[in-house]
Design a protein that fits this description.
The structure is a homohexamer of 266-residue chains. Chain A has 266 residues and is an alpha/beta fold. Chain A has a single domain (8-260), classed as Creatininase (Rossmann fold, 3-Layer(aba) Sandwich). Helices cover 41% and strands 10% of the residues of chain A. Chain A has helices spanning 13-20, 45-61, 77-80, 93-110, 125-141, 160-166, 181-190, 235-256, 260-265; strands at residues 27-31, 64-65, 72-73, 90-91, 114-119, 148-153, 212-214. A four-stranded parallel beta sheet of chain A has the order 2-1-5-6, sandwiched between helices. Chain A has a two-stranded parallel ribbon with strand order 3-4. In chain A, helix 2 packs across helix 8 (235-256), helix 4 crosses helix 5 and helix 7 crosses helix 8 (235-256). The longest helix of chain A has 22 residues, at 235-256. The first copy, chain A, is globular. The two termini of chain A are 33 Å apart. The C-E interface holds C 138, 141-142 and E 137, 140-141. Strand 7 (212-214) of chain A pairs antiparallel with strand 6 (148-153) of chain C. Chains A, B, C, D, E, F: This is Creatinine amidohydrolase. Chains A, B, C, D, E, F: One of its GO terms (molecular function) is metal ion binding. Chains A, B, C, D, E, F: Its cofactor is Zn(2+). Chains A, B, C, D, E, F: Belongs to the creatininase superfamily. Chains A, B, C, D, E, F: InterPro entries: Creatininase, Creatininase-like_sf, Creatininase/forma_Hydrolase.
Chain lengths: 266, 266, 266, 266, 266, 266
């Protein structure tokens, strides 16, 4: 067994049990997808990045990281390019909702009371909310009323100071960041072997009308699949992002989750 | 991008597309669980092992390995100790069925026609069968009639010659192998850092009556969670298992899946 | 029968049939909710407003307006105050998805090929996307491949020029507009009898951390239920909003939907 | 806000809350459909009529009327002509059941304990029963055991004396009243602008064999879609119906629902 | 194998196949329940009676009888006494719908094109309709468009002449026949050993208000569970019923189902 | 009413109630299928056999037998020949799970606390497990925590001594017993009129590779549908099987279920 791992599934069950049974150890669930991320990045960016943020937060908090959700909700055109790309492999909404509901119910059975969903794929957001709501409803039916679930997407912790450094020519919004500077910089810093920046396609930012169409018009999405150009991504920007997001996430969970002592004292 | 990876999600989408669009590349989906495996092994044994067998088969066949299913069906007492252990984190049957159905439908959309489920958790078996059946039904509705899905559990490829070497004192059946010699030997060979053989609990093989009870009687399961003792596990036995199963799986897939040339010739 | 009504359900079926059977008439479905909107507005604001925008667009386009969806998805704290308010009456995600799927399938059976969802409740958005995706999938299975669905939320058509007029002191974002200047101004203009501006509670804009918590902290939401103060709402601002959104929606649908002549010519 | 409205969704939430929180105020849910009603009537007859009966009963009882269900279960040939007519827009059974279950659960969360479903579309009946049963089951799981739900279809309150006046030439049964004298008379009285009696098709009463066939034989249904002729409908008969049904419904709810005083006294 | 059995499940598969593969052989599915039928009758009356009518019709038509559905939808108070009686064992609506959908889809796979549901439990009616509708939808998706399903409840074939003989003191309606003269007479004729007429409770006909209440008022139902007294039941009346219903059902199916010759000729 | 019947549905409800209300009477549910069983046996073997074992166990224990589940899960190639045979009529997994969940919940409502599923169709096994798990979960939500469910397949009680007598030339495993000596011998003993041993097809035992393929290769299954030859079946072997299984099942249930006295004493 690796020393001091924060990955719950790397532990034998007795050790896991000793960590979670009193409910004081936060458990973080990375929520990703298998989704195209342009010509220069692999398709599990949305698994790798939230797993890393979950790992860092777990270390900061004394928490654990659960196995990631490796498939996510359908890519939407204006946030992920659209689900019509080869490689993008998505679940129906209810499949995702049901699986998350089940996992939360199981973690609560083990004793966990402080759960954090670390989301890496924007389109998962509402189905995560529904999965949590249904899980808490069922837990209430079963007499468990004290489970708290925090949901966060790591990019929401990038503050204005960081944005100014990351996008000196102006920031165009998270909505078209798919495969762009944010994700690419983080991958360059964390998994450089998985990035081929020379294959990245430079293109003007995607521009969408204020509505959606189904089936989508493929030509609304840049042919590469990214919604803004990754050309300005650097590992140094990745450091800035890692720093600001890790600090933000850790602070949020310190606020929301009770430290062990206070749990013990109740 | 790592050279020559077989992991589909490590590829950018254009490369993935070029591999799968004509349907000649087999894609293998590891199907695991988060489940207790005794005091000496981590809880994602059933993800790690089928992922490794999938990787080896993919290399042998020129195939790809999809992201694993990291949560599985509920542990049953007589094959996995029972779902009441802390740490064991399982899905309802329908959640698993729906997610697998979705993923198969997506892979078929990409062009895949040769899919293999590499199962590492016995209890998944019937829900995998149902997920495939529902997926093929929907694909048929959508006019796709040529998807073939092979399902296998790696231990089914252990032959009598290997059993004689692995269990010189007699083999008691796969049903009580949970956390025993088979899995432990493979883990010792592949992930020795994740095994603490000194923490393994030696105990007589579990013995169950010819029926099941719900809720289970916890005392039917050895307290450690394993159903037979792992004490005789060795990395050398792991080599035997790796060899016989990899050969068997590769041969099976060579038989069932069309090589690229024959596809191109059609 | 009222002369020249655009409301589909006010027509006898033969007249409806003559309008929709060739697929050239757009049909617009208002999608709302029963949700608290502060002390000064009724709970069906999200039904009334999209119904009115649908009516105006239908008149401009020669389209029809379907009966509204009167209940919507669960109010989320950072966009609608949270689902814990008395009066807010919401559906589970799958209920909404299923009902929308059914209605789209039925409209397609009648001959409709150009469907627009006019959304008035932010939280519906993703479940609308899922309902459409499942409906199009089933229509494809049934051999119908030419249905197009446009989804829009009316506020997305407010342009910068309008924002400058509406929020001279600065715009804080749509996310906290719940029950604020936008909705209240529109209601003052369209349904003044349903607004009691004197009961509106003035408060600073809601400010949320960059994550969500379930169950929500009620004290994150202003006690009135609105997320920004409606005090600066006026009927005149309502006129600005009606104008810019109606023009934008009509233009979008002119772009996306084929006029009758082009349909007949095919 | 309109003075003295009985429509719950026209109230701001604080007023709604003050009315329902102690459970003494009945809340009535109109349950309709979008369904063809012959050449002379619009397709939302089954929404308009139960909404009006709900309104009258709410006024008599001091109750509230919830937003209507605007889409209903599939029209059956022998009671509504069949679901094959253009315009008829129906939900699958489970969609209806789920949505009603959700709404009842929400109303109970607000404090409501006295709920009445006022049905205007015969085919809804059994799915309403199922929705209520599932809602009460879930409420019981959640510890709420005192919700009472009354279900009624307004025509069931027409007594023999009224029938004698309405059908002097003999009454042929409610089953073939679809689009006939009953509904047309009520519409003539309440919404004369929505009725074009001159377009009504006179025909002999529909006559069906004692079984059903799927897919239906369209020629079993009169081509107009009505099952009996509306020619003898009059606004005066509408008055008779309004009177007898309103009295009957109010009396029933007085019997079943506890007046506020008795609630307060408990 | 019994000579000339009409029960499909008593046949080996090759013989079944030869009967059904060209679609000319009607297959009849008895649809029952496990439901209290008073103090004098067993709880599977609603399985036994439709099975017998199906058997007779199958013999007359050269058809086959499928295994019965042994559990049905929830007993409703005004037609079956209510689901609160011990012994009454009912399915949720969706369970029934799904199972029937599956069975129809399977029979169509075998070649069957002429299916009759012979219902013995009133409350099943609407869920049967839904199951058929969903099955035909799925069959259409699969390219099968020529399946015809007839649904009948045997009592609907009792004509006025028979009613006059059965109820010389006046007929009060099928709605309160639960456990009364109709069912008891048929059971006395067909399964006299299963009837204990001496235990039958004589009581005035049940009388219900024109609405339903959930949870039901148990005291609305006669304590015995029957809704009208069975005291006037006789085996002779059973003969009358058997005769009129068998003739009616056979005639209906002769009308709806194509004889073998006409099938062969197509 | 037949004297001393053990079939619950043959009882009037008051007698049933008196038997089950204190929870001391075991209730046994036969779980079968409609599935091909070769050229020599009917398709409801898997209903008839578990019903008979349930009857015998009920007599031994003072228990009751519920109506059987007459349709089961899809036949799998390596245990039942495959679901592609005409006549085999199977349910989707979720249909089976839902129906069983409902029935268990109903039996618990009646007072039953000791339920046994007597399975006759191997493929049902996992869906039975899921149905029970979901039923117990819902019962727990409803405050019922003391229901115990035993699941058994009758062939699991055949011991080595019996195997030696039944298969003097060597036993090849239960997995290929479909339609072979075990089932045929039991049918010859219990229902000889339903067996045509002269039509049985003699063939070598089926031999399958260690994996499954979907859609199945029909030629993997012997053309007759049986997986091993029934030629050595005899009624005498049926006696051996009846004896060993009945004794085993009765002993198991004596162990698991509390006798009436001990229940009364609690």
């Amino acid at each position: 067994m690796p020393k001091d791992t924060v990955f719950a599934a790397e532990l034998p069950w007795p050790e896991y049990q000793s960590r979670v049974k009193d409910g004081s150890t936060p458990i973080l669930i990375p929520f990703g997808s298998m989704e195209q991320h342009g010509h220069h990045m692999p398709m599990h960016v949305d698994v790798l990045l939230p797993t890393e943020f979950a790992r860092r937060a777990a270390e900061a908090l004394g928490g654990l990281v659960a196995p990631p959700f490796t498939y996510g909700y359908k890519s939407q055109q204006k946030s992920g390019g659209g689900n019509f790309f080869p490689g993008t492999t998505s679940l129906d909404g209810m499949s995702l909702v049901s699986a998350l509901k089940d996992v939360i119910r199981e973690f609560a059975r083990h004793g966990n009371r402080q759960i954090c969903i670390v989301n890496g794929h924007f389109e998962n957001s509402w189905f995560i909310a529904e999965g949590i709501d249904l899980a808490l409803r069922e837990l209430n039916w079963g007499g468990i009323h004290d489970v708290k679930v925090v949901v966060l997407s790591y990019w929401d912790f990038v503050d204005q100071a960081a944005i100014d450094k990351l996008y000196p020519e102006g920031f165009l919004g998270w909505d078209i960041e798919h495969g762009g500077v944010l994700e690419t910089s983080l991958m360059l810093r964390l998994y450089p072997d998985l990035v081929s920046l020379e294959k990245a396609v430079d293109h003007p930012p995607a521009s969408f009308p204020p509505y959606d169409v189904y089936p989508p018009h493929p030509d609304w999405t840049p042919a590469s699949g990214t919604l803004s150009s990754p050309r300005n991504a650097t590992a140094e920007k990745g450091d800035i992002l890692l720093d600001v997001c890790t600090r933000g996430i850790s602070a949020a969970l310190h606020t929301e989750f009770r430290p062990k002592d206070s749990v013990a004292a109740e």
